[in-house]
Amino acid sequence: MLTGSHTMKAVVMRGYGAPNVLEYVQDAPRPQCAANQVVIAVEAASVNPLDCKTRSGELRLMLRRRFPLVLGNDVSGRVVKVGADVEGFAPGDEVFCMLDANARRACNGFAMSGSYAEYAVTRADTLCRKPQNLSHVEAAAVPLAALTAHQALVDRAKLREGQRILINGASGGVGSFAVQIAKALGAHVTAVCSARNVELVEGLGADRVIDYRETDFCEESRQYDVVYDVVSNRSFGECCGVLGPAGVYVQNVATLSSFAFPLVRPAAKLFGREKRLEHVWVTPSGEELAKVARLIEAGAVRPVVESVYPLDRAAQAHEAVESGGAAGKTVLRVA
Ligand SMILES: NC(=O)c1ccc[n+]([C@@H]2O[C@H](COP(=O)([O-])OP(=O)(O)OC[C@H]3O[C@@H](n4cnc5c(N)ncnc54)[C@H](OP(=O)(O)O)[C@@H]3O)[C@@H](O)[C@H]2O)c1
Fold first, then answer.
1. Is the pLDDT of residue 239 over 90?
2. Structural domains of the chain, ranges and CATH numbers in brackets
3. Which residues does ligand 1 sit against, CB inside 6 Å?
4. What is the rounded CA–CA span in Å between residue 41 and residue 121?
5. How far is residue 175's CA from residue 142's CA, in Å, rounded to a whole number?
6. Ligand 1 centroid – CA 169 distance (Å)
7. Is the pLDDT of residue 261 over 80?
């Protein structure tokens, strides 16, 4: 039998389904850490569409999960325990990160021990110190979405100063970071969102905003060096006409083309076709998150928090995220 100091409040999932499969419990076992891991007392966690897709079973062929599990990839909180091999972090440090999925398999009887809980465990190299100018609620809104945008723009598109980028889905969790990171890199940004979010996206620095209900950007005559299809409701083929001669189309949600393109690319290059399709699949990295943190501390990037729910209302938070229309991120206040 577990005693109070070994248990925690958490949102546990015992099978795929609607938001009501998210069960709030007070006696979940706390995670332990291995030599290269740390345990974090969670102050806030954020809800990503990935969590909703994992919960519903939409990704079950790709991300085969065992149960019971605790969802949640993003965390902001305080280090409470460090493994024997961990250097650079100590109990009491205020940190934020995207948790390492692999590190979460082994501990405390949960198939995955995510951040919808009072304590979470992660590999130390996923950690970053929390930016001083953010609250824990704001910091929890950053890691997965900002890392996705950073990896898409820097690693995949190799976006440079002076280039022109179009961001489709600019008002959401990932898009709101993509607009700001692209501006920080010195690009000219065209953002695509719905009319109600135009002002928000302009406030994030977009040079030009398109309401997708009024204008189809694929039908315009402008050309871009990069199209970042955050919402991924268009295709490489549809966007080719607006890509410059060596333009890059970056997709957030994989399709068959994401896997087929690398196979046909050598032939396309032989015929002088330089345009390319890239797919981003976010990976946790403390080092890369530190680059985002520097942009936040410099005032170049800020998280957009749409709403905050207490941990025991995680199911309602999922309903809100799934109903769409939110600008920025939905956060769970845990502590
Ligand atoms: N590959 C990866 O590693 C990775 C990582 C993170 C996310 N993702 C995926 O990327 C997608 C976006 O994630 P997110 O966190 O940014 O989601 P989100 O916060 O729900 O944002 C989605 C945005 O899409 C916009 N949108 C809806 N219909 C649109 C349309 N027809 N044209 C243009 N924009 C439209 C909405 O803007 P309006 O409200 O203004 O309509 C909304 O803000 C999700 O499918 C997610 O699973 C993939």
1. yes
2. 4-142+303-333 (3.90.180.10), 145-279 (3.40.50.720)
3. 48-50, 53, 145, 148, 168-169, 171-175, 192-194, 197, 212, 230-231, 233, 252-253, 280-282, 325
4. 9
5. 12
6. 5
7. no
